[in-house]
Amino acid sequence: MALIAALIVVVTLVVMTTGAVPAVLALTTALVVAGIVGIATPAELFAGLSNGGVITIAAMLVIAKGVLHTGAVSRLTHLLLSGVRTSGQVLRRLIPSVGLVSALINTTPIVAMLIPAAKELQQRTGIPARGLLLPVAHATTLAGSATLIGTSSNLLIAGLAEPDGVHLTMFSFVPIAVPVAVVGWAVLMVTAPRMLGGRPDSHERELSWQAEIPISARALAIGRTAVEMEVASTAEFELVEIRRWGDHVDADVPLQEGDTLVFRSTEGGVRMLWANPVFGLAPQRLFLVAIATSEQKSVRDLEEDEDVVVIAAQTTGLLREAPAEPGELCLVTAESADALAENPLVALWRELEGTAPQTAKTWLAVAILVGTIVSASFGLAAVELCAVAGAVLMVITGVLTPRSAVRALNWNILAIIAGSVGLGTIVVQSGLGGYVSDAVLALASGNTLLVVSVFVVGTMLLTNAVTNAAAAAILTPIALEVAAVVGLNPVLLLTLIGTCISFTFLNPYSHQSNLMVMRPGGYSSRTFLRFGVPLTLAVAATAIGVGWSLLTFVG
């Protein structure tokens, strides 16, 4: 049975690595096959749906949405970026501050918020976003592993270890994760200005925005030509074509209501076009929107509410056909931010002519987050109960509407995590975990330093190949068996794995944050490898040293 389980696990991991099919489909297929061959019962294979870690992750997504919805993190970011002159200065300000926040809430929305902030900083000061986005994304990933609620993989490890009597608390990960994060941050601050300077690997034209400006009924442009209005070509934008009911119209033809002018533009050019009274758009408010995680959607799906109109995105094709990729930036017009708050495709937004969204419930949202952390830390209730209570309070107090709370749940991520729990069940119930544990022990010969090294290197390789959740689900039962045989502290060994799962620096597809910054920063896969190798070596060496010291002299 262990051989069949090994075949199922290996095939699943290979399929997930290659991306041949969605990860959810690969995991679900693995669970069904395992159930059919009798490796485990359906209740055991699908226990992830009721796993405490998965429940906590879902609740923390809602709490994070509530905190971000108030604009608290956005205001902190804009405060930190005021008065900066060099990329090194920006990194010294951002990395510790954003790192602290990412230890408390999910890192993905934080990175989504930083993308437009970095782009705006580049326009204002000339500091390239390329030198900021990747190091800050890596910094948030490192810091997220410092607490139980900082990453979904930590919560999953805790949920899988609980039935074996191993209890991980809110700050169990601190002794290993914090020293590793500090070393990683130092490496990022030193290497980023040197290695991420110069031109982007993914060359983009200066006019990187595709803008489609509609001619409204109140537009002064009606009856005039683009040439007459001097909007055909400037340093900030260039008229590509004029569309009228799907047909092309020459630039010397008078405009009519309903025409659409298509431009290639800079972000500043889009603002100029929006504010130009000849188009009649200024009565609407202009927002910069960061797309949330989604599948099979286009940016035009942002127009779910008829009050919202997408006027620009960083694409070379038609706006209605541009894919809505995580972290994608769009410029939209709307009468208010309410329509954006309710849209599931919107991760974060910012009004370009004002500041980040402000609300009187900021301190209430922060208080709920702090209350959740404190109550879970002191064991006032189970972590999942504390998290769910916090999520419910976000709705009861009006920080979030019920609809916004439901839409904060990323069902794709939750399904992957739940499926990964089932993958771990296959490893345990088939006896495969025992064989792998024996192999680890044989390789390490009972030497603590070798055991630590094997787990650090193995975790690092696995987490760069598959999802963090899959790595956590597979390695947790193996670590528990090794700890029991060798006599090591299981909590320290599990926190070592949880820390190393964050070492997703070599492969842009190994972590959501990597994918989000890849295009805005103009990074290639080669950039990730070149920049990630020294960082990975530094944090891996630190993890081995700290892990061995704690397991030898403390554990």
For the largest beta-sheet, the strand count, sense and barrel status come to: 8 strands, antiparallel
Enumerate the strands of the largest sheet in spatial order, edge to edge or round the barrel.
3-2-4-1-6-7-5-8
Counting copies of identical and different chains, the oligomeric state is single chain
Structurally, the number of domains stands at 2
User: What level of helicity do the residues show?
Assistant: 55-70%
Strand content: 5-15%
Q: Uncertain regions: pLDDT < 50 for 5+ in a row? A: 201-205, 354-358
Q: Tell how many strands the DSSP assignment holds.
A: 8
- Rg, rounded, reads 25 Å
Distance between the termini: 35 Å
Q: Helices and strands: which structural class?
A: alpha+beta
Fold and architecture overview:
The protein contains 22 helices and eight strands. It is of the alpha+beta class. The chain has two domains: 2-201 and 408-553, no CATH class; 209-351, Regulator of K+ conductance, C-terminal domain (Alpha-Beta Plaits, 2-Layer Sandwich), CATH 3.30.70.1450. The protein has an eight-stranded antiparallel sheet with strand order 3-2-4-1-6-7-5-8. Strand 2 (237-244) and strand 3 form a beta hairpin. Helix 6 (87-102) packs parallel to helix 8, helix 7 (107-125) packs parallel to helix 21 (512-518) and helix 20 packs antiparallel against helix 22. The longest helix has 29 residues, at 525-553. It is elongated and about 85 Å long.
